[in-house]
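In response to a reviewer's request, we include the raw inputs and outputs for one of the modeled complexes. The two entities were modeled together in a single run.
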Amino acid sequence: MSNYVDRRQMMRAMGLATLSTASASWFAPLAQAMAGHSGRRRHCILLWMNGGPSQTDTFDMKPNHANGGAFKEISTSVPGLRFSEHLSKLAQHGEHLAVIRSLSTKEGDHARGAHVVRTGYAPVGDVAYPTMGSALSKQLALGDTILPSYVSIAPQPQLNPAAFGPGFLGPKYAPAIVGGGPDAVADGGQAMADLRLENIEWPEGLKPEQVTRRMTMWRTLENKFLASRQVDSFAAHNTLYKQAAEMMRPEVRQAFDLAEEPDGVRERYGRGLFGQGCLLARRLVERGVPFVEVALGEGLAWDTHADNFRLVANLSAQLDAGWSSLMIDLGNRGLLENTTIVWMGEFGRTPVVNSNAGRDHFPNAWSCVLAGGGIAGGQAYGRTSDDGMTIEEGKVQIGDVLATLCAALGVPPHHENVTPMGRPVAIAEGSAIGELLA
Amino acid sequence: MRNLVCTLAGVMLAVGSAVAANLAQQEALPVPGDRYAMAARVDEVLAAARTEAEVQPAAVASDGEFLRRASLDLTGVVPRVSRVREFLTDENPAKRMDLVAELLDSPRYATHMATTWRNRIVPAEVEQANMRESLALEKWLRTRFAKNLRYDNIVGGLLATGGDELGPALYFRANDLAPEKLAASTSELFLGVKLECAQCHDHPFADWKQRDFWGLAAFFARVEGSDTMQMQADFRIRDRDSGEVTLPDSDEVVPPKFLGGDEVPDGRRQSRRVQLTIWMTERDNRLFSRAAVNWAWTHLFGEPLVTAVDLPREQQSAVHADLLDELANYFVATKFDFKNLWLVLASTDAYQLSSDHPQSSSTDPLDPQLFAHMLPKPLTPEQLYDSLVLLSPRSTSLNTQAMGDELQEDPLRAEFVRRMRTPAGSPVDFQAGTLQALLLMNGNTTTEITSDEQGRLLTALTAPYMRSGQQVETLFLATLARQPDSNERNLAEQMLEETANDEQRTEALSDLLWALVNSTEFAFRR
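The model returned the following C-alpha cells for the whole complex.
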C-alpha cells in the first residue's frame, strides 16, 4: 500500500462527506454487521478443479483392479471411507466429508461440461444461465457488507466464460475476481503466491494529490451534468460509482490482505495459488462473504491425458494442504457448521489408463465431494463397478447434487429467477439427496 | 415443455392476423419519392402525435451532441478531437447530413454494424465459447455492410449458408441446430415475431396454431452441422434428405408451412431451409421489412417505433404502425438499402432533438413513443473500449483490425468487452455492476490511456506550445465533444496552473482525463 489514501479524503472528494457525518457510512462497519446475523448466515466454498479430476486417483479408488493405477488407498478418520494416499491430511477430516461416487453427466467436452456442472443446465443459445456462485450468492447475501457476495480466486474461465458468469442475473451478481501471480509451487523453492482483488486500488504510483484532483474534477463534472437532468439511468451510473468508491475502503483491502496472516499459517495452506486461495477463502468467510470459489491449477491442470500419476500426485498435494487447513481453521472458528464446501471439476476421467499413462474425459461415472455445514459427513454415497466404468448404485444427476448443496445451505433449490424474456429458471432442477443432508 | 408450446401456439394466433392485416395495408400506402420526402413524412406524423398529446418537442441538440450521437450510433466511437473542432466551426447549414453521409462511408460503419449484428444474432456466451467462428461471422457481416449489400441478401446468405463458408454457421450452432430454436430465433430476429411473448400467453388457441409453429420449425428439421466434437475443425451447415418434426408428446409429423401461409411440399431443387429463406426475404413479406425498419429505428432512437410489432394490428398504436408501414415500403422500394434508411432516419427532426426535455422527470417521464426528446443510451462495451482506445497509442492497431482479414480478436478488447457485458435488454437501460465501475476506474484500459508515458492524447497535449486553456479544451472535446463551461474550465485550469513542474502538470492532465472518461456524461450517448 505505497500510496495509501485517507478514506475521508476520498469520500469528501466524491461528495460523500455529508453522508458520512449523517450515518457514519452507507454501510455498517464489517464487524458490527457480522454480529447481527450469526444464526442465519451461511457460506459456500467451491473448490473447482479445472480440467476434470480423476476420481479413480482421489476419492473412488480401485486398488484391486487393473484400472486402479499407481496410487495406494489409505483409511480416513471414518472406518470404511478410503481416499488416495496423496490426500492423507484431508483423510483426517473424513467425518465432515460426504463423497458422491455415482455422479453421471452427459457432456465430455471441457466447455460444455463446465457449463452443465457449474450452472446445472446444458449450454443452449436462448438462456444465459447463471453459474452456481452467482445464483447462490444472490440467495445467501444478507446485504449488510460492502464486501462482494461472490469472490472467485484465480479462475480460468477462458474456455467457456459463460460457465463462470452471472448470465441473465446480470453484472450485479458477477464474481469479484481475485487474480494472482503465476502458480510457482510446481518449481520447488518458490515465493508465496500473491493474491489481490482486481481494481480495488488506485493504480500503483498514483499520488494522494492526484486522487484528490481526480475526484474533485469528477464531482464537478457530475454535479453539472446531473443538476439539470432527471434521468434514472444517469442517476444509476452516478450511484454505482459511489458504491465502487466504497469498495476501495481500507477495510475491504484489508480483508484481502494475506500479509496479515502469520507465515506459519500461510505455509500450512501451501504456497501456491490454491493454498493461498483457501486461506483467503477462510478470511472472507470470516468476514461474511457468502460464496467463495477457489480454482486449483493453471489452465486445465487436471486434464491429465498423459503422465496422469505424476501430475495428480502434485495436484493432490496442493489440494490436501489447502483443503485440510481450511477444514481445521473453519472448525476452530466455529464456521464449519455453516460453511458448505464443494469439490468438483467439469467431469471425471476414464478408469482405464491410456497408452500415455494418462486418463481421458469421463462423464459417465465420476465423483464429487460435499463437506461441512448441512452435510452428513463420513460417508460415500453411491457405488461404481469394480472397474469403475459403470454406476451400480445411487446414480445421481448434477441437478441432484446442486439441489443437495442448496438444501445444505438453506436455499430452496427450486427458487426461480426470471429471465429478461420472462422465463422462470430454477436454481437447481433435481432432488436433494436426503442421505447426504445432516 | 408443454407450457412453452402453449405460449408459442398462443402467439401464432396473433401472427396470423398480423400477417393478414399487413398484407391488406400494403397496397393503400404511397411510397415517398425520395429520402427527403420520407424524412419529412416521419416528422409530420410524429409532430401530429405530439400535438395530440399536447407535448412540445425538446430543443434541437447542440452540434457537439449531434456529432457524438451520430458517430456512436453509426460508427461505434466518439469523434476524434480534430473532427470535433472542424464540425463545431463549420458554417455549412447542411453539415449534419454531410456528417451522416461521411460516417456511413467510413470503414468503421461496417465494423460497427457487424459487431452490432453479431451481438444481435449470437448470444454473448456462445460468442465467447466460439471466438474464432464468432470473428468469422463478424468479418462475414462486415464485408457485406461495407458493400452496403441489400439487407434481404444479407439475411438470405446467413440463413442459406452452406459449403465452405465460415461464419454464418455459428448462428445455427448458437441455436443448437434445434428446429424449434431456429424457428423461434429467426422469426424474432427477422420477422419481429417473439414466440415467447408472455403477453400472448393467455390467448385462446386451437391445435392448428401449435401446428403453425411446428410448421415453421419443420423448415429446419433437416439441418445438420459438421462434427461438433472437433474443436479445431471449421463448423459447417448441411441439409440432409430426411428429417421431420413432430408435435410434442406425439408421433404426428408436421409438414413445413409458412407463418400464416401455405404448406410447402418438399422440392427437388431446394432444401426446406432455402425455401423458407426465399419466402422470408420476399419483398412482399411485410413482417420482414417491418422488423428490419423497426430494429433500425430502435438503434437510433433507443425505443422501437412499434413496441409489439408481433401483436395483432389492432393492439398496436395505429399512428406508429402506419408510419412503420410507410418506412417499410420505402425500405423495400429502395431495394433494402440500409445506408439510405440511415440517411432518412438520421435526417429527421426527431433525430436532431436534445435528450433534455423540460417536461420529463424521473417521477413523471414523457411517453418515449412520442419521440419528443432523444433517449440516452449507455455506451456498449465495444463503444466504450473503442472510444477509450482512440485516446491511446493502440488506436492504430485497431484500425488495421477493422480492415484486415485476420480472424484474431484484440485479446485486451475481448477481455474488456467480456467484463463489461450486461444482459441483453432495452438499449436505454443502464445495468452495470460495481465491479464494472471499478474496472473503469482502476483497470488496465483506463490506466493505460491516463498514463503520461503511453496516452496518445496526453502525449500530444504536453507539446511545449500548448497553454492550459487549450489543453483543457482539447480534453473536453476529445471525450465529450463539447467545450468546458466556465466553472469546469476554471477548476481545470487552476489545477494545471498549481503544478510546480512539467511532470506534475502531466499528472494533472492525466487526472482530468480520468475524471472525464469516468463521468456519467461520457458513459452515455445522448
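As requested, we also summarize the result in words. DSSP finds twelve helices and 17 strands in chain A. Chain A has two domains: 39-201+250-436, 203-247.
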